[in-house]
Amino acid sequence: MIYLDSAATTLQKPPQVARAVARAVGSMATPGRGGHQAARLAAETAFRCRQAAAELFGMTDPERVVFTFNATHGLNIAIRSLVPPGGRAVISGFEHNAVTRPLSALGAHVRAVTGPLFRPEAFLEELDRALWSERPDAVICTHVSNVFGYVLPVDQAADLCRNRGVPLVVDASQSAGALPVTPETWGAAYVAMPGHKGLFGPQGTGLLLCGRTDAVPLLCGGTGSQSRLQDMPDFLPDRLEAGTQNIAGVAGLLEGLRYVRRTGTGCILARERRLIGRLIRSLRDVSGVELFTATRPEDQSGVLSLRLRGMDCETAGERLARQGIAVRTGLHCAPLAHQSAGTLESGTVRLSFSPFNTEGELAAAARAITALA
Amino acid sequence: MVYYLIICRSLTYAQRTAAALERAAITAHIMRSPKSVATKGCSHAVKISQRRLADALVVLRRAGLPPDRVYITQGDGSYKEVELY
């Protein structure tokens, strides 16, 4: 199989990830729940994982690295901590349902800063206006669109939010492990990310990097600390980690983080951009193929969406799957992004890459798409 | 053997505390706090030798990891809180 769906889940992982998961299942209990060897081993693994994440993302305090089950979990915590029921939020026009649905559930007044695809300057101008006019409780911005690979100008958006005193939440689902993710430089209130994409951890893992310590817990329960009190602890990470954690997943995530740090995010990004550039060059002159690409390579990362004239995207995805090429089709859980780009009715075929893809795989995918067009 | 227990608010804080001490060549052992000193329920503590408390406090102050409370073992197995200045 040629796997081009890494924006959903990276399937090819460094082999040490699976080995660590298996080892943890056989040897680790739960951190903080006992003084015995199995609990101690779990505690050491969890701490090393927090430290590795803090180092990768330039954070000074590993206590602000909270384990979640995925990015959606982290985003729900962040949104519920900052936006009260009926509150106000400004979001980018490329947000995933992981952002828009929690806001909808809160009955929040949401202003989407749409702006044209791959036009970061236009996005920033509109964001600046929205910050003045909306006076939001929070800004929530994806770092990279999961549909189009559009790299949003988070550095500058963070400057605007800081200047206006508005808390910023960044969804780093598609950028963690490839682009610089720097919560402390951004001054972000929260940065959420999954473990199972660019960090090469197993499914069921995620991280919430906390710039604030006053988050509202989504779950309440045992933490292995302050157990006589009925309130959740007021310190991180315990405040946000009720119940038994996915320590086998954390062990795998630790190995994924080590792989990313060893390889270097710059190398990973360069490789993904080389692959995407090759695919674009192979397909841009093919009649019947509509590519969604940035003029400047730095505005796009890891994801390429396309449409085939006269062919439903689901049909295209099915035909590619029959040839052993795994892509994602439809709305990719991000109808707002499609609305912003004008592809809501058609959806797109999405190809997304990891450093484990080869140029030969990309050439084969290009041939298969050309044959469909 | 006489030793000190540095009581920490969480396991992760205890791990940071122990890591800072180990980096300064102060042997530190993480353990669950004895029930008699864990006033709010379960907590974790870092155990260090009686000879290293002064050094440890300097290291922890520099690392921005102030101890919650510190206890010393008594001859009868109980613990007595140490006043920190």
Notes on the structure:
The complex is a heterodimer of chains A (373) and B (85). Chain A has 373 residues and is α/β, with parallel strands linked by helices. Chain A has 2 domains: 2-10 and 265-372, Alpha-Beta Complex (Aspartate Aminotransferase, domain 1); 15-263, Aspartate Aminotransferase, domain 2 (3-Layer(aba) Sandwich). Chain A contains 12 helices and 13 strands. In chain A, helix 2 packs parallel to helix 8. The longest helix of chain A is centred in the first third of the chain and has 20 residues, at 37-56. Chain A has helices spanning 15-27, 37-56, 71-82, 97-105, 120-134, 154-164, 183-186, 247-263, 265-283, 313-322, 335-341, 359-372; strands at 2-3, 65-68, 88-92, 109-113, 138-142, 168-171, 190-194, 206-210, 289-292, 303-308, 325-326, 328-330, 348-352. In chain A, the strands form 3 sheets. Chain A has a 7-stranded mixed sheet, with helices on both faces. By secondary structure, chain B is an alpha+beta fold. Helix content of chain B is 27%, strand content 29%. Chain B is built from 2 helices and 5 strands; from the N terminus they run E-H-E-E-H-E-E. Chain B has helices at residues 11-23, 53-62; strands at 3-8, 29-32, 44-49, 69-73, 79-82. Chain B is globular and about 30 Å long. Chains A and B meet through helix 2 of A and helix 1 and strand 2 of B.
